[in-house]
Amino acid sequence: MTVAKASAMRSKDPSTQVGAVIVNKLNQIISTGYNGFPRGINDDEFPWINSGEDWGNLKYPYVAHAELNAIVSARTDLTGCDVYVTLFPCNECTKIIIQAGINRIYFIDDKYHNEKEFIASRKMLDAAKISYDQLPNLEITIKVKQK
Ligand SMILES: [Zn+2]
Fold first, then answer.
1. Enzyme catalytic residues
2. How far is ligand 1, taken at its centre, from the CA of residue 118, in Å?
3. What are phi and psi of 146, to 5 degrees?
4. The domain spanning residue 100 has which CATH number?
5. How close is the Cα of 97 to the center of ligand 1, in Å?
6. How many Å apart are CA 85 and CA 136, to the nearest integer?
7. The pLDDT of residue 45
8. Contact 120, 127 (CB under 8 A)
9. Fewer CB atoms < 10 Å away: N or C end of the chain?
10. d(CA 33, CA 19)
11. In a domain, 145, yes or no
């Protein structure tokens, strides 16, 4: 989860930084991801705005979530793997997690617990018998020393 937290710090989203790490049965890291625009899309040309009337000018249609990025980056069979994610997955990521064959989710933040997308996530995970466990929050600090 420490690596997931560190991955989240790479996100340029000013409101919600999320990181995900996929590990195999030996707890070896297979891949990491964080929320951001798809490859080749400039962070300066697309919006990070999260509220307003004009859907096309919000971040939502464009942002690829941390779980999606970690799963796509893995480029290998993830059957039986676990995912560590800093925020409980939305319904779209939950579908991708299930289809990838991941069988356990560890998360920290559950701030959207009562929102419909996250209720749908739990409904799918329960039906698919994929466990999800909340871990205590942790704070990491990375200091970069310039020469
Ligand atoms: Zn998601």
1. 67
2. 10
3. -80, 145
4. 3.40.140.10
5. 10
6. 12
7. 87
8. no
9. C
10. 6
11. no
pLDDT above 90: residue 143 = no
Residue 90 labeled ligand binder: yes
Q: Does some domain include residue 147?
A: no
The residue with tokens 């779980």 is 67
Q: What is the pLDDT of residues 89-101, one digit of tens each?
A: 999 999 999 999 9
For residue 93, say whether it is annotated as part of any ligand binding site.
Answer: yes
Block residue for tokens 């899309």? 41
Give 42's DSSP letter. Answer: -
- Count Cβ neighbours within 10 Å for each residue of 50-71 and write b for 16 or more, e otherwise: eeeeeeeebbeeebbbbbbbbb
Distance between CA atoms of residues 22 and 79, nearest Å: 11
Residues spanned by the domain of 106: 1-134
State the distance from the centre of ligand 1 to the C-alpha of 146, rounded, in angstroms: 35
Is there a domain that residue 18 lies in? yes
Residue 29 placed within a domain: yes
107-132 tens-digit pLDDT: 999 999 999 999 999 999 999 999 99
What is the tens place of the pLDDT at every residue in 8-19?
Answer: 999 999 999 999
